[in-house]
Amino acid sequence: MYYYADLHIHSKYSRATSKSCNLEELAIWAQKKGLSVISTGDFTHPAWFEEIKEKLVPAGDGVFRLKPEIEKQILKPDKPVWFILSVEISTIYKKWDRTRKVHHVVFSPDLESAQNFRQKLGAIGNISSDGRPILGLDSRDLLEVALESGEGSYIIPAHIWTPWFSALGSKSGFDSIDDCYGDLAEHIFAVETGLSSDPEMNWHVSSLDKYRLVSNSDAHSPSKLAREATIFDTEPDYFSIMNALKTGNGYVGTVEFFPEEGKYHEDGHRKCNVCLSPEETKKLNGICPVCGKPLTIGVAYRVSELSDRKGEIVTPPATAGKVVSLVPLPEILSEIMQVGPASKSVTFEYENLIQKLGSELSILTEVPVEDIEKVHSPQLAEGIKRLRAGKVIRHAGYDGEYGVIRLFEDNELVKKTS
User: Fold this and answer.
1) What is the distance, to the nearest Å, from the Cα of residue 189 to the centroid of all Cα atoms in its chain?
2) Domains and CATH numbers, the chain
3) Count of H-run helices and E-run strands, the chain
């Protein structure tokens, strides 16, 4: 069994990236996190594509590894990291008298197919200004370009519920995946749920039952890898993963953010400090009680809007896998230590734990809590014990503001003194 993420990493050439990164850093962080397979991201960008060709070598069946002379310098030899060619594409276009804004993740099995795709897109729009190109192209037509670029190429709709840029988003999406991709929709076999929803929320919409659900962290810097991941029990290669998503054979499930931590889970206005549940939003007719303008409608509301299983105890569809909900280890350390998750003290403790106990995902899911207590503290052991049991305190995100998931009540932690 292994973990795969991230579908849409952004490279140092992407405006979506908060920090510069390279392939070596991605591999190092993948190993720290416990990921076996990650995406290259941004392969349409000329400079990043050249870096991919310079530093990666084919490792069989559609996956790549760092060149041996690079890999042996930075990675532990018993835990290899494989790369899959992928890129996130933003399409903005008019359809049915509305402006549509949809993000897609495109996969290619080899450099030749990726180059074909790059050339076709380069003839349509600018692929040099950003690692995530923005094109005035219908989603259906983008899918056609991907399919024609090489056998085995495919698309997964990205973070399908995000309000502003997704296939089902409240602001600029559609009411179904079929509407988004038209007569080529049969070539879509998986969808990404995004940080603000989890599989159970998606099970309320029966039209999604036929799709395998994947979760990935949309990493804008290497340290954000594995906030979410998809779990497979297959060979770690491109075609085995694609077959698992199509058939379910070898698809295990997903690692999830608690959806409330996602920054578009509930409705509201960040500037007005207003966060509302779907029920509260309906009572207000979607209008902010502070400024009187329309609220940003979040994922929970949009799922409810499209749900045809309202009020039911939803049985997972046949395509469902297991669901593991986690909080990133730096956030847990941050809560316990009462400092920022990016602080030097949290970084030091994080690296110490990884060194002594193994990858972040293994610490969060597998390492005995007794060992965690010996290496770190009773508080961390208790926090991870609660996390594994799903006993968390949730404060939902809204309108671009991340939510907060806590493991302890305020009075359970000793306050820092200056």
Assistant:
1) 17
2) 2-261 (3.20.20.140), 329-412 (no CATH)
3) 15, 17
Contact 246, 23 (CB under 8 A): no
Structure tokens, 325: 């909900």
Q: What integer pLDDT is reported at residue 102 of this predicted model?
A: 98
- 377 touches 383 (CB < 8 A): no
Helix ranges restricted to H, 56-123: 68-74, 111-122
Cα–Cα distance for residue pair 364/360, rounded to 1 Å: 6
**Which parts of the chain sit beneath pLDDT 50?**
18, 417-418
**Residue 94 near residue 50 (C-beta atoms within 8 A):** no
Question: Considering only CA atoms, which of 6, 409, 380, 417 is closest in space to residue 216?
Answer: 6
* 3-class DSSP state of 146: helix
Residue with tokens 């069994």, as numbered in its chain? 1
Q: How confident is the model at residue 129, as a pLDDT? A: 86
DSSP for 316-365?
PPTT--EEEEE--HHHHHHHHHTS-TTSHHHHHHHHHHHHHH--HHHHHH
CA distances from 218 to 5, 16, 41, 164, 277 (A): 9, 10, 10, 15, 25
Residue 201's H or E segment, with its range, is: helix 199-202
- Specify the DSSP class assigned to residue 207: G
- What is the distance between the alpha carbons of residues 163 and 359, in angstroms, rounded to a whole number? 33
| CA end-to-end distance (rounded Å), the chain | 46
